[in-house]
Amino acid sequence: MKNVIDSFVSLGHWPSAGSFGFNTDILATNPINLSVVLGVLIYFGKGVLNDLLDNRKQRILNTIRNSEELRKGAIDQLERARARLRKVEMEADEYRMNGYSEIEREKQNLINATSNSLEQLENYKNETLQFEQQRAINQVRQRVFQQALRGALGTLNSCLNSELHFRTIRANIGILGAMQEITD
């Protein structure tokens, strides 16, 4: 082992004129190594980097297009809301002209419709609660049944020895034989 180490150490002390050796001067070799690594990374990584930047550019452009479409949609909605507001304001003027009785009647209709909607929502909520309760009860029943079945099987397996098993089989065979004689 010492000979191998000595041979590498001695390689570092060879003169550099026309021979091969290790350059042990760290300050001289690091910039060269870094420039080679950076050159290789730039040469081979340029395509990957360009692809990544193109993909990012396309995503940004798509996001901008989507934002523009959303902005146009929002402007359209705003215009429709303004038109609806103008219509409602005109209707309000008509209501004022026709008197407060019409407003009271519309108010009552709205209250009734809202009350009906709330009642329907309450009914749907109650039905959903009943359904979820029934489902929970069924799940609990199923778990209890499975646990009882496991317990019964465990009890049967622990209590059933081979002698009792053979007697049960003989008794069942006897019952089947008697049933066959009756059917003949």
UniProtKB/TrEMBL annotation:
The chain crosses the membrane at residues 32-49. GO terms for cellular component: chloroplast thylakoid membrane; proton-transporting ATP synthase complex. Residues 64-127 form a coiled coil. One of its GO terms (molecular function) is proton-transporting ATP synthase activity, rotational mechanism. F-type ATPases have 2 components, F(1) - the catalytic core - and F(0) - the membrane proton channel. F(1) has five subunits: alpha(3), beta(3), gamma(1), delta(1), epsilon(1). F(0) has four main subunits: a(1), b(1), b'(1) and c(10-14). The alpha and beta chains form an alternating ring which encloses part of the gamma chain. F(1) is attached to F(0) by a central stalk formed by the gamma and epsilon chains, while a peripheral stalk is formed by the delta, b and b' chains. Belongs to the ATPase B chain family. F(1)F(0) ATP synthase produces ATP from ADP in the presence of a proton or sodium gradient. F-type ATPases consist of two structural domains, F(1) containing the extramembraneous catalytic core and F(0) containing the membrane proton channel, linked together by a central stalk and a peripheral stalk. During catalysis, ATP synthesis in the catalytic domain of F(1) is coupled via a rotary mechanism of the central stalk subunits to proton translocation. This is ATP synthase subunit b, chloroplastic.
